[in-house]
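Job type: complex structure
Entries:
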Amino acid sequence: MIDIRSIRKVFNQGRPNEFTAIDGVDLTVQLGDVTVLKGPSGSGKTTLLTILGCMARPTSGRIFLLDREITSLPERFLTEIRRQTFGFIFQRLNLIKGISALENVMAPAYPAGEKFSSLRKRALELLDMFSLTHRATARIEWLSGGEAQRVAIARALVNNPSVIIADEPTAHLDTRLSREFMEIMKKLKEDGKTIIIASHDPIVFDSDLADAIVEMRDGKLVRVGATR
Amino acid sequence: MLQSIERQRHLIDFTLSSLMRRKGKNFSVLFVYTLVVFLLASVMFFTSALRKEAHLVLTNAPEIIVQRSLSGRFSFIPVDYGKKLADIRGVVSVRERLWGYYYDPEFKANYTFMVPEKLPVEQGTIAIGAGISNTRHAYEGDILSFTSPDGVLRSYTVKAVLPEESQLVAADIILISTEDYRVLSGIPPGHATDLVLTVRNSKEIATIAEKIKKILPDSRPIIRDEIIRTYDAVFNWRSGIMIVILCVALLSFVIFAWDRATGLSAEEKGEIGILKAVGWETSDVLLMKFWEGAAISLTAFLAGVLLAYVHVFFTSSALFLPVLKGWSTLYPDFRLVPFIDVNQVITLFFLTVVPYTITTIVPAWRAATIDPDSVMR
């Protein structure tokens, strides 16, 4: 369970361009669920995702991961939690150009110092899971949009995280690829992964995959509801 | 422990593939860097080899040399002066020396003729330095001709080519018999080029030199310390030029390193953001950048030092020749004896590799401390 209480996130605090992205949000994400953060651009979905995923610290409020408070942990520990617990799929995929798909998938696991052969094997298995074995050595820029996205998902899974965080994953995909993405999420859910997706795409929030829909506007929760 | 080694291995792997991605940029950096190290190392090798040569010269230098000076000009010294010098208390021996220079207009080179004291040369024969042998393609058994002051061409058979222990010293030397040299040089009988004194107590050298000046007012005693100073000035003059090059090379290195230090591209910054977002710590990013700097530094350092070695000791510092043109006219051809001062190589390492590696880390440190969520924004 990820529990956030009274979270506020203010950018450029004390400056003329001060901006409150999240304003007093309480939310509980159940493990094993698919939670969709829904709302228009600028509603605070992405900021909330970064806080849930230990990428950014809130200006105020508290974060609990499996009943352990992690709000004020030093960067080192927070990075370790992020690496072990969360897998990220970014809106622009953020794959590293110039290196192979396989190297991209392996990159998040490098700092852990796992044996090269076992890491490579696991990365290849992940690529195989997404039917990308034949593209393992291909450079990222040579891949099609769908292939690149599957590589990004494989990368998110390489450290075997329990939570997958996806930020607007279908924003740059056509309908077919968006549905394909949701199919993959479905499989991951079946494998017991917790999935948090920020999206304003109906293919995502209208999907029967979502267990909870969190609607946001102007940094506040408008509605939190289960779909079933 | 094993985990830490694997971590380093992964980071090095990633660094190398990162470097290969930006081939153009990194090869140009490597090229400039290698060039700077090459210049610096060439200067260092060249000056240290020159100093080594000087040392070789001075080891066997006489304690006092007495020349004759008339109207402030060098003049041949009467051999009789030796008797007066031998009477000075503290002087062990006095020897006359016959030697002088000969300009060869055909090859535009200066030779040093010398009558050896220890190994007499047969009349009609000569022994030549390796430099002359190379320049004139003269080997044992060949005949070389030189013109005496009376305009007569005189021929001598080459009996031996001198060993190459110190080319700078021996390259331009021609050893000749006393009789032949007197004829070739025109030094009249009863005269010598200079007189060489051996002194019992080296502390007395200055006193003896003063006495010589009193006994023989037309003489000019030159003590070994003065020779050392002269050689030092000569070699340092060359070192001086080299130091100018060294300063220019160092300055260009600083500019180049500074450029690198401030030049982390937006793409590189973006990548650092991605790596942090997917679970890399600031220290992982810094370590990666350290390996990147170290890989370029070490490659450039090794390549630069190796090229400098070849340049100085195998091509006779071909690139410095324009600077040393005056010398190269005096000496037909010489190669420095390969000699490397390990301390200098270590100094060069700390002057180049260490600052460069650090300068690559500084901008990365600034980028590495950005929040990982920057890639989400």
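Summary: The longest strand of chain B covers residues 153-161. The interface with chain A takes residues 2-7, 9-11, 13-14, 17-18, 20-22, 267, 271, 274-284, 371-373, 375-377 of chain B (CB under 8 Å).
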